[in-house]
Specification:
3 helices, about 35% strand, single chain, globular, seven-stranded parallel beta sheet, binds coenzyme A, Acyltransferase, Hexapeptide_acetyltransf, mainly beta, Trimer_LpxA-like_sf, nine-stranded mixed beta sheet
């Protein structure tokens, strides 16, 4: 009885709107996605696809209570026109912004964690592997938004997909830009910038410009 009451308390209006907007009735009624009251559902277009057994609260957006930002008021934003795929459990904390353009894809692996005040902006494709996490105030963005042309007038800074491997930890305040490829098992050190393909699994990468700080590492929560 108490369990049922606690469950029902978490099913707020935003959660109902989100689930019934994106899923067929049989899936929606299980509320696989929980949306906190602190999420601004700015655009709920496109599709949300779950490639995992459906269960309540598989994906949670706008929750958590770490004190580096005001977790009671800090607002997450969902502005989606394209496809968002969840391949399993995902926990996206308060203040995070998810922006996916029309025809773009954002793919989260299983057991994904994103800390507070991060932003992911997908204009083309961003794919994150399983058991990976992004720490607070990081930005992952596969587009520059504005065009830059060379002397012939040809634009050269097109969006490029970003691939983040399995078991990757992106530390706080990192910036991951278009064309970034982060190998499985790696750590990206705090305040680093990734603009291209990094090579070598199980390494710590860091700095700006980026360099390999340590190799043959293993990390866990
Ligand atoms: C990645 C990290 C875990 C590495 O820790 P570590 O292995 O103990 O690293 P060390 O302090 O031994 O530093 C090793 C080298 O990397 C350099 N380095 C470490 N962090 C760096 C960073 N963020 N940027 C650039 N260089 C860095 C050090 O200066 C040192 O360089 P040197 O070998 O030339 O002397 C740590 O630097 C880090 O980024 N921590 C932040 C974690 C975080 O964001 N937590 C938020 C909550 S999830």
């Amino acid at each position: 009885m108490i369990k049922a009451f606690k469950f029902l308390r978490r099913i707020n209006l935003k959660t109902i709107i989100f689930n019934f907007r994106y899923f067929p009735f049989k899936t929606a009624i299980k509320f696989p996605v929980l949306i906190s009251n602190n999420v601004f559902l700015h655009k709920t277009k496109g599709r949300v696809i779950i490639n995992a057994p459906i269960r309540t609260a598989l994906v949670q957006i706008g929750y958590g209570a770490i004190g580096i930002s005001d977790f009671k008021r800090s607002r997450a934003v969902w502005e989606v026109y394209g496809d968002v795929v969840f391949n399993g459990r995902a926990f996206i904390m308060h203040g995070c912004k998810i922006n996916v353009a029309e025809k773009a894809q954002l793919i989260f692996g299983d057991d994904f964690n994103m800390s507070t005040e991060c932003a992911i902006i997908a204009a083309k494709k961003i794919k994150i592997g399983n058991h990976s996490g992004i720490s607070w105030e990081s930005l992952v963005m596969d587009t520059d938004f504005h065009h830059i042309a060379d002397e012939t007038g040809e634009v050269f800074n097109h969006p490029k997909e970003i691939i983040i491997g399995d078991n990757v930890w992106i530390a706080c305040k990192c910036t991951i830009l278009k064309g970034a490829v982060i190998p499985s098992g790696s750590v990206v050190a705090a305040n680093s910038m990734v603009t291209k393909k990094l090579s070598g699994e199980n390494s710590i990468f860091g700095g700006n410009p980026m360099r390999v700080l340590k190799t043959d590492i293993k990390w866990w929560y």
